[in-house]
Amino acid sequence: MEHDTVRALHWTGEALVLLDQRRLPHEIRYEECTSAADVANAIETMIVRGAPAIGIAAAYGAALAARRYADPQMCEAQLQRLAGARPTAVNLHWALQRMRAKLLDGADAEAMAAEACRIHDEDVIANHRMGRLGASYFTARGAVLTHCNTGSLATGGYGTALGVIRAAYADGRVSCVYADETRPWLQGTRLTAWELQQEGIPVRLLADAAAAALLRLADVRWVVVGADRIAANGDVANKIGTYGLALAARAHGVGFMVVAPGSTLDFASANGDAIRIEQRDPEEVLALAGQRLAPAGVDAWNPVFDVTPAELVDVLVTERGTVERPNRERMAALGA
Ligand code: MRU
Fold this sequence. Notes:
Layout: E1 9-11, E2 16-19, E3 30-33, H1 36-44, H2 51-68, H3 72-83, H4 90-104, H5 109-135, E4 142-146, H6 161-170, E5 174-180, H7 187-198, E6 203-206, H8 211-217, E7 220-225, E8 229-231, E9 236-239, H9 242-251, E10 255-259, E11 265-266, H10 283-286, E12 287-288, E13 291-292, E14 305-308, E15 315-318, E16 321-324, H11 328-332
Parallel strand pairs: 4-5, 4-7, 5-6, 7-10, 8-11, 10-15
Antiparallel strand pairs: 1-2, 2-3, 8-9, 9-14, 12-13, 15-16
Helix pairs in contact: 1-2, 1-3, 2-3, 2-4, 2-5, 3-4, 4-5, 5-6
5-S-methyl-1-O-phosphono-5-thio-D-ribulose is lined by residues 49-52, 89, 148, 150, 154-155, 160, 187, 226-228, 238-239, 304.
């Protein structure tokens, strides 16, 4: 059984329809984007989120720009607008670069849309391959801990880390999925819990602060996470809190697996220090569900990603193959 029914993006041939992830799980509402500006706005406001899904959305945004503007310079301005929507996920720039190359090749609107659909399809194929590769590391049945949302909602479909968990669950190797709530945006509580529930996979939420205790006390075999950008030396930028999980996993002898497609690899960044970390509105920390909790006048630090040093990663799974204990030399085998 595939345990894979949720989809975040749908191309109608004329518009990009997005499942509005700000409203999940209590409201299933779709947002239609008919221009590149609509797509850029959807990425900025997190209607669509998750590195691969952002890249795919941007590719469709470029296709919409090609439908609207015959002038390549006008199209390029729309590509720039899309590129500025969020800074950390390199998939956004990778997808736009692929769309730009088509545009420079003289592709018409139809060919641009076909390229965006290819990017979307290839992502799903990559996820299935990573699912199998990653699940092969689950040699005994046990629990797994994940962070943020890396499933169908964050990708073209199936998911990266959640794809591995899906595949391992189908093999009977996962007794329970523990999902961090993932403060402050609550991707775990709102999205991962919902997505796994839709698929009939048992899920148990925990506060982010409970993760280290869970790894000490419970039968967790693997911590499995995704990535927004992986540098040439194997350093991993991912949702804030990932670094702490990697430290806790190493301290307790629990495996730490990162799952990400080739479109997340950034060989132009020598190491994690070169990765720009998105800072979002302090209100995301100061308030909860629109309700202000912190006293007036208090500020907050809200970096939404962190960098996990490569030496804390036990295995990196990509569709190009797996790399154990990544470093610059082993990463090079994945190709630039
Ligand atoms: O801020 P988000 O929700 O876009 O962050 C998402 C993550 O950090 C995911 O772990 C990452 O993009 C990988 S998704 C397959």
